[in-house]
């Protein structure tokens, strides 16, 4: 919606904190502790925004649930949820996220603010800087000093906060219009964004030309049409190793890095699906891309209704844009017999598809290498 409409509705910002106390029958909201005493808490900011010291998760590693750092805990210990601050803000408050160690970001309408707690007092909120977009902000995320702001039309915008001057500077903009559902930064230069049309895209600010337009200067690296709206994105990592790793690495095939999935993206959708996106090396991608190109045209594995798989996964995305690979399509390869797998790898591709693929050396395009790579991916995510 336009900025005027975005600011016409008032929102509220609530600050809650956890207070250590004893169980009572007063009817107040209490949370069982088993995580440490009040003397082991850090700043109020960490409690409010969800930062918890690493040692508080020790009970999940097999330690006694009633002990913390060797100290016996009272089973009556509890945390009470208290309201510290409440205020009306001009505009709908749709996004909030922590920033650095002592700030947090809040959006209200088409504006977002760098805020903090003076003297670590959760009952006071101070606005240090404000930035504005043309349309209502739907997503906020940060990675170190880099801030990514997503709105309901202009897509993703990158900002940087200058602490001494207390000013926000806009650095990069989305080259396409999109209604952002959620966004997450993999690093200071790379953002993964989902939109309300069911797409997920990767945008990057690396290797940009110096004379690129400041109004349209993020580069779209790849995209994928999920046909489901991913409302939440989370970043994680998966480490997995199979017995034949050493054999695969010592062969003539593509060198793989699938044993450790860094910067894995987990997306949850409005329809209740969970989707996992992993990062592959260029050699892995080119090998599996060639396999997928054969799976989508072979009678054994092509879409049942005869739909154009390439057109479907490219929907709402620029022509010629590299696509993420379809894990559901590739998994079919593992369900086939060896003869069927070999038949698919040997099938001839239409000229239109063949011209878009990079030629692979015969030593790379072997059945055992394809099966091993797909099994690594499949078992790591199972």
Automatic annotation (TrEMBL):
Q: Which GO terms describe its cellular component?
A: nucleus
One Gene Ontology molecular-function label: nucleic acid binding
Q: Which domain of life is it from?
A: Eukaryota
UniProt domain RSE1/DDB1/CPSF1 C-terminal: residue ranges:
79-334
Which Pfam families does this chain map to? CPSF_A
UniProt xrefs under PANTHER family: DNA REPAIR/RNA PROCESSING CPSF FAMILY
- What's this protein's name? RSE1/DDB1/CPSF1 C-terminal domain-containing protein
Q: Please spell out the taxonomic lineage of the organism that makes this protein.
A: Eukaryota, Viridiplantae, Streptophyta, Embryophyta, Tracheophyta
């Amino acid at each position: 919606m336009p900025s005027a409409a975005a600011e016409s509705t008032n929102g509220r910002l609530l600050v809650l904190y956890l207070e250590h106390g004893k169980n009572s029958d007063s009817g107040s909201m209490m949370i069982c502790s088993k995580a440490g005493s009040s003397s082991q808490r850090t700043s109020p900011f960490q409690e409010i925004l969800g930062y918890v010291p690493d040692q508080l998760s020790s009970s999940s590693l097999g330690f006694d649930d009633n002990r913390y750092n060797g100290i016996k805990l009272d089973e009556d210990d509890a945390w009470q949820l208290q309201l510290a601050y409440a205020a009306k803000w001009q505009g709908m408050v749709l996004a909030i996220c922590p920033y650095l160690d002592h700030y947090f970001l809040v959006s209200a309408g088409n504006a977002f603010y760098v805020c903090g707690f003076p003297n670590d007092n959760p009952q006071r909120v101070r606005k240090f800087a404000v930035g504005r977009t043309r349309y209502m902000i739907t997503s906020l995320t940060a990675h170190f000093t880099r801030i990514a702001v997503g709105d309901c039309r202009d897509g993703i915008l990158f900002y940087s906060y200058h602490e001494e001057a207390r000013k926000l500077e806009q650095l990069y903009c989305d080259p396409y219009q999109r209604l952002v559902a959620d966004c997450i930064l993999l690093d200071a230069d790379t953002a993964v964004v989902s939109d309300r049309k069911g797409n997920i895209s990767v945008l990057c600010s690396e290797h940009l030309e110096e004379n690129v337009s400041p109004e349209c200067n993020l580069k779209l690296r790849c995209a994928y049409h999920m046909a489901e709206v991913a409302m939440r994105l989370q970043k994680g990592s998966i480490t997995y190793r199979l017995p034949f790793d050493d054999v695969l690495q010592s062969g003539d095939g593509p060198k793989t890095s699938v044993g450790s999935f860094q910067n894995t993206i987990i997306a949850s959708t409005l329809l209740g699906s969970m989707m996992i996106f992993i990062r592959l090396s260029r050699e892995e991608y080119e090998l599996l891309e060639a396999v997928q190109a054969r799976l989508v045209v072979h009678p054994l594995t092509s879409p049942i209704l005869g739909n154009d798989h390439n057109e479907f996964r490219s929907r709402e995305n620029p022509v010629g844009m590299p696509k993420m690979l379809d894990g559901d399509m590739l998994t079919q390869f593992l369900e086939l017999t060896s003869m069927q797998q070999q038949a698919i790898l040997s099938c001839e591709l239409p000229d239109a598809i063949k011209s878009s693929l990079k030629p692979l050396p015969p030593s790379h395009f072997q059945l055992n290498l394809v099966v091993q790579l797909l099994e690594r991916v499949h078992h790591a995510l199972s």
